Protein: Diaminopimelate decarboxylase
Organism: Micromonospora parathelypteridis
Amino acid sequence: PRSVTRGADGALAVAGLSVRDIAAEFGTPVYVLDEADLRSRCRDFRAAFPTEDVYYAGKAFLCRAVVRMIAEEGLHLDVCTGGELATALSAGMPPERIGFHGNNKSAAELSRALDAGVGRIIVDSFTEIDRLTALARERGVRPRVLVRVTVGVEAHTHEFIATAHEDQKFGFSLAGGAAANAAFKILDEGVLELRGLHSHIGSQIFDASGFEVSARRVLALQSQIRDARGVELPELDLGGGFGIAYTTQDDPATPQDLAKRLRKIVDSECAAENLAVPHLSIEPGRAIVGPSVFTLYEVGTVKNLDGLRTYVSVDGGMSDNIRTALYDASYSATVASRASGAEPMLARVVGKHCESGDIVVKDEFLPADVQPGDLVAVPGTGAYCRSMASNYNHVPRPPVIAVRDGQARLIVRRETEEDLLALDVG
Ligand code: LLP
């Protein structure tokens, strides 16, 4: 986070609060959210996309306090399950600012969304269109929908592949004609209000040209719909996926750069297709919350395998950050509780789980005198860490605290053994 400094005692401080005080008050592991940092990232996106809508993708990390923060900062919210929707509503997110995603929304979830009056539903299959149409008819309502289009662009970090066909579960295929047929079906039936098209091409993307190809492809469909049905769809959502720097090698685009490029391609394609420029929206998750959080662990053991490697075990692991094991993701780590003049030593930061793949940080230079009791901070853990946390090995999931102006506030409490046992009714 932006407000991390090293204090006179050598310990890291976030927004003026020492990690030693955080560990003493809340224990470890703990996710530490720098609230000013999160809010400033929301503002950066709002400033870069002032006339567009920015939907925070709640799957990255969602709790009531964060819903309130992003709502106060003028963002919209993307949810993709009944659970995320319930969290959003219970935090008072205005329903008209919620977009509801998902490739298999149940009738119960759709009913709840309709009854709450969510602003839009991104439909993902013909089955869902029929399901939603029936529920809307029953209620006499006309929900606003977007059609999720599979544009045949697959983006992974520093590269993207543009293909004609895409083999994946999400959305309606563009190349196969399903996307056009979905739009025609909705327009012809007239029960749902078709507001526009949606595409999402991947996550942790650095090469913005993937968005340009995708925008070009959806806008071609937009003009096909106009030609066939005489309707110009008023909205376009280009999804999320904007990359963040996990290590010093990553160099993400700023929201301003992204906005400029997206607007430019949309404007020029619309001019070429003779379309009115639709109202744009985007759905960043990771880029909003990822960099605002670090995980604070305590070192429990240091094992030096002579000539091979040093394993530094911390008191969490793959249950609070599955990304290294699952995606081979790269993180960094630093000794946070003190300064050290010791030589740097190549270390692997591992967790406490019964599995050798339980790695938090594959390779990191830590001071050679790292020892049990030291606190270690792993930055960039705001997105897809707490939200994908598990209770593997019956390890209670860590709390999340929000730090602001030197004050810490618990926003998600630590799970307890009682919580774990509460579900065990046998
Ligand atoms: N919109 C849609 C429709 C999405 O499916 C996603 C992410 C987003 C927006 C937000 O993407 P973001 O801006 O956060 O990259 N668990 C994986 C990431 C899965 C992303 C799923 N969809 C990870 O930890 O890298």
